[in-house]
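Hi support team,

I've been running sequence recovery on a batch of backbones for a student project. Most finish fine, but this one hangs at about 90% for roughly twenty minutes before it completes. I'm not sure whether the input is malformed or the queue is just slow. I've pasted the structure tokens below so you can try to reproduce it. Let me know if you need the job ID as well.

Thanks,
M.K.
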């Protein structure tokens, strides 16, 4: 299993534009796994399996973006939500061995809605709507990494590109704060600016960017980080083992990942392993 190091929230906070974490988030950040982890692909088809993890994700978003950064955003039952949190949203969730969500990012097709194009088009030089001429246009938003683990950051950066490649994406839009942009560039994302740095209503400065989605970018990031492991998993809700706990399912995927060379091979191996354990009555 891949070893993980615990990272100090204080020493990593600046890289993730988190200057302090309120008591609730600080308490949640205390538990950080030291073993293998997986990035869970949570889409509309399997979202019902992640109710608790999504609730935690929205609470974390409220802590960071509303309470820490002071952004004026919509809060429902203590969680932060925006117009991108709809049926087309896909969440990449970093879960530990207990099922706790310690990291997340949202990706979504931008053909019908985009935070950048529809809500903040002035950050784009020229006609922001013209970006939709690319049929493979997606957008990412609301990146959180509780505890600032470097390995978890690598997994999100690589996993996002590899997942979007499977969806036929060509580029992914974002509107990061300049501090987050600086971190993303330092750690390997080769972002293309779409406009000059401009202030946003909450008091910071952001830059509209586009991340190329292609095989070369995925290979570049894996070479840069030395990561050759498979860490993206997606649960088929129709699988006979989908009713099992996320901790049992992730453990099987993590075990299968030791021999898998890609996500499809991983899925097949984990499926066979879980079916076998069900037949033997080892899991229920």
């Amino acid at each position: 299993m891949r070893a993980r190091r615990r990272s100090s929230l204080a020493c990593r906070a600046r890289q993730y534009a988190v200057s302090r974490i309120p008591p609730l988030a600080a308490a949640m950040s205390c538990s950080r796994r030291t073993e293998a982890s997986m990035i869970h692909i949570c889409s509309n088809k399997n979202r019902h399996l992640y109710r608790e993890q999504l609730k935690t994700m929205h609470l974390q978003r409220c802590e960071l973006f509303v309470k820490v950064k002071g952004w004026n955003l919509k809060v429902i039952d203590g969680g932060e939500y925006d117009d991108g949190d709809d049926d087309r949203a896909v969440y990449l969730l970093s879960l530990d061995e207990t099922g706790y969500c310690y990291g997340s990012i949202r990706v979504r097709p931008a053909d019908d809605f985009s935070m950048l194009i529809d809500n903040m088009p002035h950050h784009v030089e020229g006609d922001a709507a013209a970006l939709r001429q690319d049929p493979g246009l997606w957008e990412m938003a609301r990146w959180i990494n509780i505890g600032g683990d470097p390995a978890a950051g690598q997994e999100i950066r690589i996993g996002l590109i590899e997942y979007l490649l499977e969806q036929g994406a060509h580029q992914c839009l974002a509107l990061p704060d300049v501090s987050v942009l600086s971190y993303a560039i330092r750690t390997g994302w080769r972002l293309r600016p779409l406009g000059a740095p401009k202030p946003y209503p909450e008091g910071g400065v952001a830059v509209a960017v586009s991340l190329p989605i292609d095989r070369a970018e995925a290979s570049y990031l894996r070479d840069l980080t030395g990561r050759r492991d498979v860490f993206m998993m997606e649960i088929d809700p129709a699988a006979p083992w989908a009713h099992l706990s996320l901790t049992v399912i992730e453990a099987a995927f993590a075990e299968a990942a030791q021999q898998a060379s890609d996500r499809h091979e991983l899925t097949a191996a984990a499926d066979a392993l879980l079916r076998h354990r069900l037949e033997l009555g080892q899991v229920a």
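--
Follow-up from support: It reproduced on our side and the slowdown came from queue contention, not your input. The chain is about 35% helix and 20% strand. No action needed from you.
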